[in-house]
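Good morning C.,

I know you're traveling, so I'll keep this short. The sequence:
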Amino acid sequence: MLLQLALILFCVMIIPTLVMLLYSGSQILSYSEKAIADTSLDSLDSNQRLTESALTYVMQNTVRLASTKLFDQIRPLTSYAKLNAEYHRVETALPLLMELQGLVRSNEGVHSAYFYLHGADYIISSDAGITPLTRYENIEWTEQVLAKKTGIAGIWQARVADGGEMLISYVLPLSRLSTSTKGTLVVNFNEAQIAQFMDLSATDDASNTIVNLDNGLIISHHDKELLEKNAREIPVISHIVQDNSEQGFLFEEQHGERFLYTWKRSQQFNWIYISQSSMDKLMAQTGSVQQKMIIFTIIIILAGTVLTVLVATWVSKPVRQLVGAIRIRNNFAESAKNELAFLDSAFRRMQEEEEKLNQLVADHEQDACSLVVHHLLRGDMLKSSQQALVQEMFPHRYYKIAVISIDHYSKYVSKTSPEARSYHRYAFLSSCESSILPYFHAKSVYYGEDKFVMLLNFEHVDKQVHAQIPEQYIDKQLTIVQQQALAWFGHTATIGLSHIIEAEEELPPTLIEAMELIKHRMIEGNGRIIHWREQLQHNKKYIYPLNSERRIINFIDTNNIESIVVELEDIQRQIEATNNISYDNIVFIYNQLVGVTIKHLNEINVNTSAIFINKGNIYSAIAAMDTLDELTAYLKHFYYEIGEYLCIKGNEVNYLELIFDYLDKHYNEDIVFEDMAREIGISYSYMRKLVYEGTGKSLIDYMNHKRIQMAKQLLISTPLNVSKIATEVGYNNIQSFNRFFRKYEGITPSSYKLSKLNGS
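The tokens, ready to paste straight into the viewer:
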């Protein structure tokens, strides 16, 4: 053992030394070039990620600001004089100003940020505050940038500011998905900060360049005179820009000196990052390091040779002691082998035993108790080990099954994620068992959807108190369970409690019995503990309000919805007054009313799909209701929608005329369609539907088409210029006017006017 370890230590030291000596000189230098290039490429990649992380963080903060409601407050304040007329108006713009200033402070390298409200004569900026456009830098460049934009995301633009600084600006128009305010957010990022990011992990003589592939211009460089220059005019960089590879490197000799160029493309920004380093300086450092490594290795060999035996002796001592102890305590056949072979054999044997133990643990990873309870509830045959576990969990003779159903479970599901629901179930099951007092042995399991099953096991009690003490005692414990359900799920729970049974074979039918009890909350209401009673299971009555059905059909024909509501309330009172009515009978009554109503509407040629297009499966919704109050409320809403549709259907032409009249009067204003619909008296979605069905155009398309038609008249009949006409017909900027005019007429407004004048 000692000799083997000494030999290993010696080889560990001597072999690297021989390799270094054999491959020194030109071979190591040739490999060094590749290693240096890879290192430079890794450094460039690190700088790229740092730069784009900073820019991405700025983008995220800008998008977050754009999604706030701050812009809606200043939407009507398009005049600087109007904004400053009263202090409370200035206050509406101050929160946005503070957000812009906070955006600059919280993002390293951000030069400034400003917001321009379309059509306004002022700007809100982090550096100049709220100031007129005439006192701020020219912002017309943003319109040219946004003209190239696609989608709702912003766009980065390199530019030279009025002060001469090189800036990388992020231009983001406000999205109609979050606000109806029209405006543009601009965040200016210092090019000097990007250059600083690029130089963080570079060598002293390295030169870093960033080229915008959209236009081929240099947007970052340590030599500021090269900024905004065409990269295709620089020989080596031009070759790299035209190369389509994602990343790479090349060696180029210039003026007797070799340079290393590495590059990496950015898919996110469509930029290319280029680094230039002098290979002569880098290789000089490599040669110096190589010489130092050889000298240092020789010293290690001399010192290591002396220490090898000492280290081998010291290191092998615990191993030799361990081998001796194992040999004494265990009877291994490999006792004649050396220490290393002996330990290898011993560890393999221990590994085999460990794998067997891991396999046993894997076989019992499932919760054995819950699994056994599920088997009992299904009536499955149990293994002998499971039967022993049943005896341990339920040592007493008597059982009760409590089915716990979460009230309004569909509402709970709509507001929570699957992960949250899984955690809530686990926590609820744990709290259920911990809240049961020692008088009972209880085990709770999840039984799918909104239901949990609790199996209660307890001792037999004296027959004289049997009907009182256990039931009251169980109610006390189950009330605590209901409190736990309210805490974890945010809703009450209804509990169905079966009668007492003595045999495990009776558990499956008893579970069905407890499940059926849950349905009685339709009459008794939510949050109840419903005990099994003999009368609950027998002599159930069947009713159907046929006269109410006929009256409801007549009320539909006269659109008398209030009378239908009275009938629904009367049906509820009739059901509540009927003893022992079944759950199935109640659901049948309401399903039959819905079915008869839909059938009658179809018979009188009413488009029922248009009424109930967003209601989903009505019968499933009825089956999911917990109580009569919910069912009645649902049916009331059902008939109110029918009545509203019947009223609107008779007035569609009048509403369409009101819409056209409104647009004729206000087409040249900044119309907010939601406010327009509210003023007319219908919903926004219904207004869009009416316009599309009446004109074949969308609401926005119809309004823009009308504006262009009015603009054509003004172009021919008035001496106004194009910019003034754009304002007259409701466009805040001439770019939008030109775009829509070309869309509908195929030519620009100026060309249209010229053609008409020449034709006349």
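Safe travels,
E.
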